[in-house]
Amino acid sequence: MQRALTSILRLTRPWRPLQARGCSSVGATGVPEIQVHALAGRDQGITEIIMNRPHARNALGKVLVSELLEAVAQLREDRQVRVLLFRSGVKGVFCAGADLKEREQMNEVEVGVFVQRLRGLMDEIGGTQRLPRCLGVALAKELIFTGRRLSGEQAQALRLVNHAVAQNEEGNAAYHRARELAQEILPQAPTAVRLSKVAIDRGMEVDIASGMAIEGICYAQNIPTRDRLEGMAAFKEKRPPRFVGK
């Protein structure tokens, strides 16, 4: 089991920078639906994926999902990217969910394939399994059976979201809060952050003993990194660490 877990959790990937930073994709209408924008200056290391499908309120259609999958696949291999932000280029909306008008034109096989692609893109799909684990069975059933809509404050009270912010005149208060959070993550050791994410996500799917084994495997991958030594040196010298992701 230990050997199998180690193989599954190994994070070694070749470093391949994106050929085009700030690239964009073009949908069937000729209008870019996905834009990838790398921030600079003090925010270098933060990359934004911007959804731009205003006529459909950023609904998840074939083109948008295809281009989003392509962008995520490229960014996954780019070690210059430390934090990824998803934002909307359409004022007043983030994402309207599935494109039901487009879905009506699909046959059953096409719908099945499309849903599987969505599952590969977003962990949130699978609400009948994830929501009970987050809120408990009774409350999850109530929300799913009623289809109730929640405000940001209600979602935060239920701990479905971490933060709820008052809207500003520009309509981008949530983006600014997300960017502030990204700036907090940015200076941390990239490898340690990635391994922590793996340990948490995989550990939540198994019993506590297996979860501890997963954590041990992840920590073992962090031991030989230069960033671990830099963190200890910075602590000893009472200075901010300078992590490089190696």
UniProtKB/TrEMBL annotation:
InterPro entries, sorted: ClpP/crotonase-like_dom_sf, Enoyl-CoA_hydra/iso, Enoyl-CoA_hydra_C
Gene Ontology CC annotation, any one: mitochondrion
Gene3D superfamilies per record: 2-enoyl-CoA Hydratase, Chain A, domain 1, Lyase 2-enoyl-coa Hydratase, Chain A, domain 2
Keyword list, A-Z: Lyase
GO biological process: fatty acid beta-oxidation
An MF annotation (GO) of this entry: enoyl-CoA hydratase activity
Pfam families: ECH_1
Family (UniProt): Belongs to the enoyl-CoA hydratase/isomerase family.
Protein name: Enoyl-CoA hydratase domain-containing protein 2, mitochondrial isoform X4
Annotated organism of origin: Pteropus vampyrus
